[in-house]
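Instructor's aside before we start: the two examples that follow are unrelated to each other. I chose them only because their records fit on one page, so don't look for a connection. First example below.
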Amino acid sequence: ESMSVDSVMYIGEKINEGFGKIRVIPDVAALSITDAETEPCKVTCESINENSLLAEIQLRKFDDKIIERAIFNCQKLRIEDKKSALNASQIGRLLLMCKQSSDHNDFIERVNSIKTDQVRDTALNLFGSSAIEKVLSDLFGESLFVALESKNPALRWVKQKKYIITFLTVAKYRLKETVK
């Protein structure tokens, strides 16, 4: 069959289904690739700021501490106080409230809107201002945490939120374990 250069052809059994499409190009076009097109990619590296790297490592250590404390406090609550245990829907509701809150005060306002006294009181005991501040100061030491917060004022809410979400997630997981 005669065909023109740079034309499209179909080969094989399933050409009616869109398979086997080929294109024929002259050898000259393949040889015309320049050295500039085949040069290896040049990778540029930004200089690493040692202080920012150390700060990132410190924040990751803080996150690990938050996770450990949330697991410990959740286990302690489960053992000591079965009356104030939350069910799965209450935990889910508190998780949603925390995720939607802009800061700790906003979260507390949302918690105060809960109509069930037992759920509201349990949440305030676990995540109220004094309880959460005690957890954070125990974990990080107040002087270190104040120094970090002076560099980034939103850091306190980020850490509070991380603790609350981690605690509630662990509580929900533990609740699923006990149901099985």
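Example two begins here.
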Amino acid sequence: LQLRVSKSYLILGVVCAVEFAVFGTGSVLAAALNSDGSIPHPIRMAVFFGIFWGAWFALSLYIIAASCREKLTVTSQTITQEGVFRDRTTEVSGITSVKWRAWPVGGSIVIRYPHSQIKIHFDNFLENEREHLIRTLRGLIPEDCQDNWDVFVSSRHTAPTHPPKTRSAAILCMALFIVS
């Protein structure tokens, strides 16, 4: 089983990167030029705006990188999580404990092994992939290592089945861009 994060993260990252680049450039130029003389320290404000919008732009680039790089591979022998900055692999036989969690939205699992852990957030994947992943992990890992399964299952039946889509966030970003 090999899964990648939902493509909606790529769309969100690109839309926000463009938006933050435009906001940042506009803010820096407006502050630096100070055409009406209303800003007492225009260069300081330009630097502040550059750092502020630059940080948001960098976060957008991280989201783009994560959508392209992050991958989860589950086989009968190993679980491998590839991230932007590091990769983690554990053999299924080396797993010491597993905690099923209802939080964040969509649920998550923490897989512990002797020297580290792997956290998997189920909401990062499409719904059909998520369900297949949950069934695969539940069947692959010995039950005596698993904790909190009942709470995890009950939370999935009481929580909304369709969390807010990241497309909604992208639309919000675009609306803010158009309004300003």
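The CA atoms of residues 151 and 157 lie 10 Å apart.
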